[in-house]
Specification:
By secondary structure, the protein is an alpha/beta fold. It contains four helices and four strands, in the order βαβαβαβα.
Length: about 90
């Protein structure tokens, strides 16, 4: 089973997390966000591990969903450049 991570914990990420949890296809899910209140809400509603550190999500995950609004600056950071992107 894959370990799944989410960078960004907004409404779209929440919907995906809840759907994935219903399938029992993963051993763990971790999600990050810059908003502590949002992380507290996600942790309370889904019981998954949360963090404010995007790098921790990448380190602990086999598959990472980028659930953030695009910013031109974020694509220039080194750890984003090492990710492999797939279009579905």
């Amino acid at each position: 089973m894959a370990k799944i991570g989410f960078i960004g914990s907004g409404k779209m990420a929440e919907a995906l997390i809840k759907a994935i949890l219903k399938t029992n296809l993963t051993e763990s899910i971790i999600s990050s966000d810059k908003n502590k209140e949002r992380l507290d809400y996600i942790m309370e509603k889904t019981k998954i591990k949360v963090t404010r550190d995007n790098k921790e999500v990448v380190k602990r995950s086999d598959v990472v969903f980028l659930a953030v609004k695009p910013s031109p600056l974020q694509w220039k950071t080194k750890w984003y450049q090492r990710l492999h992107f797939f279009s579905i």
